[in-house]
């Protein structure tokens, strides 16, 4: 048995600099990002509602797809609620700081 040089069996890829944000994305502010996230949440909840209605009416036959839509909407709502709670907690902490 022979032992080869260190690193001979690895496919090493040199590090590349991080990609910079596109100018359109860099111009987006915090409020714009929150608005986009809330719009996506609204869309996922609407999709879940439509798929549940289609299941109840007998149009949709795939129960797994309906349940996935419901879980996506639920997780999105939970995430939004937690972000809101963290933001309110940070606001309260800042407001209660002594000057």
Can you characterise this structure?
By secondary structure, the chain is mainly α. The chain has a domain at 27-95. Helices cover 67% and strands 0% of the residues. It is built from three helices and no strands. It has helices spanning 23-27, 30-57, 63-95. The longest helix is centred in the last third of the chain and has 33 residues, at 63-95.
Note the main attributes of this structure.
single chain, 99 residues, mainly alpha, 3 helices, extended
Would you kindly provide a brief summary of this structure?
This protein is mainly alpha-helical and 99 residues long. It contains 3 helices and no strands.
Main beta-sheet annotation:
none
The multimeric state of the shown protein is single chain
Mean model confidence by pLDDT: 85
Structural class category? mainly alpha
Integer-rounded radius of gyration: 24 Å
Count of individual helical segments: 3
Helix and strand topology:
Layout: H1 23-27, H2 30-57, H3 63-95
Helix pairs in contact: 2-3
């Amino acid at each position: 048995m022979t032992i080869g040089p260190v690193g001979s069996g690895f496919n090493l890829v040199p590090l590349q600099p991080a990609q910079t944000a596109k100018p359109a994305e860099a111009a987006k502010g915090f409020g714009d990002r929150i608005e986009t996230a809330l719009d996506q949440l609204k869309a996922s909840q609407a999709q879940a509602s439509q798929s549940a209605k289609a299941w109840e009416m007998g149009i949709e036959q795939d129960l797994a797809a309906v349940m996935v839509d419901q879980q996506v909407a639920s997780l999105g709502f939970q995430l939004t609620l937690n972000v809101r709670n963290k933001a309110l907690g940070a606001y309260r902490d800042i407001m209660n700081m002594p000057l």
